[in-house]
Amino acid sequence: MSMDSLKDLYIDELKDLYNAENQLLKALPKMAKKASAPELKRAFQDHLAQTKGHVDRLEKIFKGLGEKPTGKVCKAMKGLVEEGKEVIEEDGDASVLDAALIGAAQRVEHYEMAGYGVVRTFASLLGENNAVAVLQKTLNEEGEADKKLTKLAESIINVDASKAEKNGAPKKAKKVARRK
After folding, report:
1. Mean pLDDT across the stretch 102-106?
2. pLDDT, tens digit, for every residue of 55-72?
3. DSSP 124-166
4. Number of domains present in the structure of the chain
5. Containing H/E element for 17?
6. What range does the domain containing 47 cover?
7. What is the pTM of this model?
């Protein structure tokens, strides 16, 4: 795609977000399944429902622009999802893994907030006032999801994780070579 105007850049950034949201639709159920704290599991499930709405909103914006939302892979989200997958595949104390899941999820939320802030500003400059309101709504929801994760981390998850080793949770055993 040629970047000859702010509108070209706006459409490209929207495609990036659309792909990012679709990657999340696949990742969030896996994160919810891995989460052990019921509150965290619920937060991921709630955000999955919101993410479906974000995809729908982006599709409406594309329709209004007469554009197709496909054609771009969000490499940043691909990397963030891969980091989350690493956490999902780890073994260890459930509360510590929940804390790691929150960290992975918050990195995703911050990436999305940055992306939605950028496209909202572009939409405003381009006079796409309906899109501005829609994008701001999504940006607000992403911010609320981040706040919810922070509250969970600070009040429950990280507190439990900090107690894991103190309460006798086993450390990873070091392999000791035996002589025969």
Report:
1. 96
2. 999 999 999 999 999 989
3. HHTT-HHHHHHHHHHHHHHHHHHHHHHHHIIIIIHHHHHHHTT
4. 1
5. helix 6-34
6. 6-160
7. 0.88
